[in-house]
Amino acid sequence: MNIENLEGNWNYPTAIRFGCGRISELVEACNELGITKPLLITDQGIAKLPIVTQAVDNCKNSGMSCEVFSDIQANPIGKNIDDGVIAYKKGSHNGVIAFGGGSALDVAKAVALMVGQNRPLWDFEDKEDWSTRVNVAGMAPVVAVPTTSGTGSEVGRASVITDESNHTKKIIFHPNMLPAKVICDPELTIGLPQNITAWVGMDALSHNMEAYFSPFYHPMAEGIALKGMQLVKDFLPDAVSNGADLIARSQMMIASTMGATAFQKGLGAMHSLSHPCGAVLNTQHGLTNAVVMPYVLERNREAITNKATDLARFLNLPYPSLDTLIKWVLELREQIKIPHTLAEIGVDDAHIETLSKMAAVDPTVGGNPVSLSIEDMAKLYHNAITGNI
């Protein structure tokens, strides 16, 4: 396999320019959307990197007026959106460049939504027909540039934002939140540390895996999820061990995009358990998904045994079965230094009552293969804290 062959222009689920060096086409992508004064939204860590400085300079050298907004938390809150809207309007911007990892992209998409709305952000939560409340004409165009390979938010139609009033993660949704243009340049992920590479890579795996096991009917998403998991199996260890491996980086960026495309089919208890931990304790999302993954697989045993066997066979695991699949997950986690328990990332029994109530009503719980009560969530948290699979 040659890195030169890992390049393409795709129009599913949106227009994607994929390949090394394609960040050079950022100005062109903005021009295609009529963006002349972009607000580049990223997080504080990435804002300090040369890749952002160069992107801004390229925009300015082409005659654009480009400013940076980076006041974003790792688990973004509503105030981050409000502040982004203020910055957008103050600078008289007419489009957004979403630049960074999942948090930055989620904030950028939400800001692009909210610049033209008269209602508060929470009125657009993914409930019933609330998306029909959106003034579509007021939304700003978005060019998305991911710099990690985990959330796949660049191809998502929603943002996950924490409501500070009750410490709950809420999904803000509208079909037009899907960025109109995406630039996936694997070279932008080269500087990602080993631990972050591992965490976001496991997030991509969780997206593909939960979509695959979701009971809802969506064969296209299921097929994408299968290939996405195969890419994670084949390339995540290399991306972690050798961050300069552009082939591994490229394939993981594809796997991330595939996961976010596939989870149109649904997510499940991995995310239901993870979201409250992030909202209350500020745990890293991909890392939390990785920790709870085998415990959720075991809890769902009654509903996923046959599909897990098929998946293990597709992944070319020996003696394919659910047990083999769980064993592979455990070995992968150990190889890339993922903790075995929630206790190791700051979750303990004192948190269970609060977290389990939140997990039982999380928007993702409906996609789990088996129904889970508050008591079931409490047991899952306990198992993941104590390491009892």
Task: Based on the model shown, name its key terms.
389 residues; alpha/beta; Rossmann fold; Dehydroquinate synthase-like, alpha domain; 2 domains; seven-stranded mixed sheet; two-stranded antiparallel ribbon; 14 helices
Could you walk me through the main structural features you see in this protein, from its secondary elements to its overall organization?
The protein has 389 residues and is of the alpha/beta class. It folds into two domains: 3-188, Rossmann fold; 192-386, Dehydroquinate synthase-like, alpha domain (Up-down Bundle). The chain has 14 helices and nine strands. It has helices at residues 26-32, 44-47, 50-61, 78-90, 102-114, 194-213, 219-241, 246-262, 269-281, 285-299, 301-314, 322-335, 352-360, 374-386, and strands spanning 8-11, 15-18, 38-41, 67-69, 95-100, 142-146, 158-163, 168-173, 181-184. The strands form two sheets. The protein has a seven-stranded mixed sheet, with helices on both faces. Strand 1 and strand 2 (15-18) form a beta hairpin. The longest helix is centred in the middle third of the chain and has 23 residues, at 219-241. The chain is globular. The two termini are 38 Å apart.
